[in-house]
Amino acid sequence: MAPSRARSWSDIYNLSGYLVAQVPLQPAPYPLLGFQIGFFTVPPNMPPGWYNAVFVTAENTSTGPLFGYLNQSFYVAPASAQAPLVVIPSFAFENQWIQIEAYILYPNGTPVTSGEFVATLLPAQDMYNLLLLSFETGVPLQYNATLGAWVGYVQVPSILSPSVYLGEGVYSLAGPWDVVVAGVTPTGLNLYPSVWPIYVEPFTYMDPTTLTASNVSALSSVTGSGDVLYNVYFPSLRLIGVNVTLVNSEVGQLTAINSHVNLVNCNVSTVNAVGSTVALNGGVVEGGTVGINAVDSNVIVKGTEFMDLGYAFSVSHASLSVEGATYINVGDIATDEASALEQEVASGVSEAISQLISVTPQSLTPRPLVTQLPSAPVAVEQPSQPLTALHSSANTAGDALWLALTASATALASIVLVLPRPRRG
Questions:
Q1: DSSP per residue, 119-181
Q2: Same domain, yes or no, for 225 and 340?
Q3: What is the tens place of the pLDDT at every residue in 412-424?
Q4: Which of 70, 103, 359, 400 sits a CA distance of 20 to 30 A from 34?
């Protein structure tokens, strides 16, 4: 006679030994394959205190029934801490460091100044995997008395930074992400996971940089190929004696000295060219006093949009060719000197365009770098979304509690009972 399939459940007892609830367990989905999982919501009338979760596995075999037991405890607290405000930017670039400020309060409204609190940055679509990702990528927060907030710094994953997302491409890492803050006070009051959205742009953040012939190849080897850089963001970029093409990228202030620069579908605020050739194909120039400043240079513009500028062009001893440009909220197209020079464009400009602009532009929606607060935290679904885990944490009656048995016990906002799947001998 073949043995029957094993059954697993968890019995929850109070300290008096009274059975409070029985929670059936079932095979867990990825990434908890090999575990049994179940959910339990703490009733509103459940008295505060310690409770024991007894995991039971039973199987009928040819030699008789077999049982396995595993015990774990969790605590139900009479109240919980709150995080009514978490300050983060509304969006960020890949590879960028962002600051997190969490204002955490006791139930009476006084600030929490000690405890254990963690912030986890993860893709919104991976919220189901928060329990494991919080162990892998969560960063501890420290209390800043000057700000009256818990502060931490986290780096957005990218193709440049090793992490659990190693191997993902620029567009795979872009999109809606969440910052989740959770923890526990010294008195055992839980801060249930507070979820705040942030959008990750499909650009790799680079520190303000000067590129020369000696370092441009090293950079392009990880963000492009040859002398072409794709999907990068520079707050400012200085080019000296190089031939560089930027594709689908964003740059704050671009300065080119004795260089050849090709901008394909890029968003820049200001271009300064000295003794250089600069070609813009598509993209946007916006937000500066003057869009393009050129001295002893050749500037070739094709299908570019100029927005929110005092002047689009200011040139001196330079040639300027413009084809198919559009102007929105621009004070004047050019200074008087630029207007005169524009009429003296050399006859070989068309040939220069075909030589310089050799990369087909791709679609790009430029987005200015701004910082604003989300209007409100995103509510955490219970119990389907896992929650950030901390050791020896507490729970509040009436709220959902999370309990996971992996390497250690964890208790937070929804109870998840996890047990290794039994193996037949």
A1: EEEEEGGGGGGHHHHHHHH-EE-EEETTTTEEEEEEEPP-SSS-STTTT--HHHH-EEEEEEE
A2: yes
A3: 334 455 555 444 4
A4: 400
Work out the angle at residue 200's Cα, subtended by the Cα atoms of residues 195 and 201, and round it to the nearest 5 degrees: 160
Region of poorest pLDDT, from 199-203, 300-304, 397-401: 397-401
pLDDT (mean) for 225-237: 88
38 and 157 share a domain?
no
Closest by CA to 74, choosing from 407, 405, 419, is 405
Rounded Cα distance between 263 and 301, Å, is 10
Tracing tokens 């007892």 back to the chain, one arrives at: 13
Which of 279, 227, 247, 250 has its CA nearest to residue 360? Answer: 247
- The two structure tokens encoding residue 346: 């050399």
Sheet (strand 35-40) strand order: 26-27, 35-40, 415-420
- 192-210 pLDDT, tens digit per residue, is 899 999 999 999 999 878 9
Whether pTM > 0.70 for this model: the answer is no
- Domain total of the chain: 3
Rounded Cα distance, 230 and 234, in Å = 12
177 and 133 in one domain?
yes
3-state secondary structure of 413: coil
Is residue 11 located within the same domain as residue 25? yes
Burial, 303: exposed, middle or buried (Cβ in 10 Å; 0-12, 13-18, 19+)?
middle
CA of 150: how far to CAs of 87, 109, 136, in Å?
Answer: 10, 15, 20
Phi, psi of 217 (to 5 degrees): -65, -40
| Residue entry with tokens 């009274």 | 18
